[in-house]
Design goal:
Order of helices and strands: HEEEEHHH
Number of strands: 4
CATH superfamily: SecB-like
CATH class: Alpha Beta
Distance between the termini: 81 Å
Structural class: alpha+beta
Helix content: 25-40%
Number of domains: 1
Radius of gyration: 24 Å
């Protein structure tokens, strides 16, 4: 009877999410057209690329790396290029499947973004370019777009290919 009570009172482990560490994994800055770029009117075109990657570290620990690459183009030349790999170690318990994927792709990068944005601004201003404050990013919307794209690709692959057209050689 005591065994029945124990098994009936067992509960799923509580959900837990803890940011254990934030660190700069990689940083690169290039300014190939200096000092000539400083003599031009500063109206660059900015190209921003975002990427996230997550991996298990064993147990309930996960590393998430947010990569942001910014290229400032002025008069068809690269004024500067800065790339930051901002990483964090997260303890995540009680989540599985889609819930885990969503947290790794949205919540974790969102927490890392503030650190990456500050690093980028600091590096750019230390190179004596105007301050560069990145606008907030909606990682939930990016995640939903990626899911939709993956579903569309899966549907396209699942659709049967049209039968091959008969050729004259096959009918003779």
């Amino acid at each position: 009877m005591a065994e029945e009570e124990l098994s009936g009172s067992e509960q799923a482990p509580p959900k837990q999410f803890v940011l254990q560490r934030v660190y700069l994994k990689d940083l690169s800055f290039e300014s190939p057209t200096t000092p000539a770029v400083f003599k031009q009117d500063w109206k660059p075109k900015m190209k921003v690329d975002l990427n996230t990657k997550s991996s298990g570290l064993g147990g309930d620990d996960f590393e998430v790396v947010l990569t942001i690459t910014i290229t400032a183009i002025l008069n068809d030349e690269t004024a500067f290029l800065v790339e930051v790999h901002q990483a964090g170690i997260f303890l995540i318990q009680g989540l599985e499947g889609d819930d885990m994927r969503r947290v790794l792709a949205t919540v974790c990068p969102n927490m890392l973004f503030a650190y990456a944005r500050e690093t980028i601004d600091t590096v750019v201003t230390k190179a004596t370019f105007p301050a560069l404050m990145l606008a907030p990013v909606n990682f939930d919307a990016l995640f939903m777009q990626a899911l939709k794209k993956a579903q569309e690709q899966a549907q396209a692959q699942a659709e049967p290919a049209p039968p091959p057209a008969e050729s004259d050689a096959a009918t003779h």
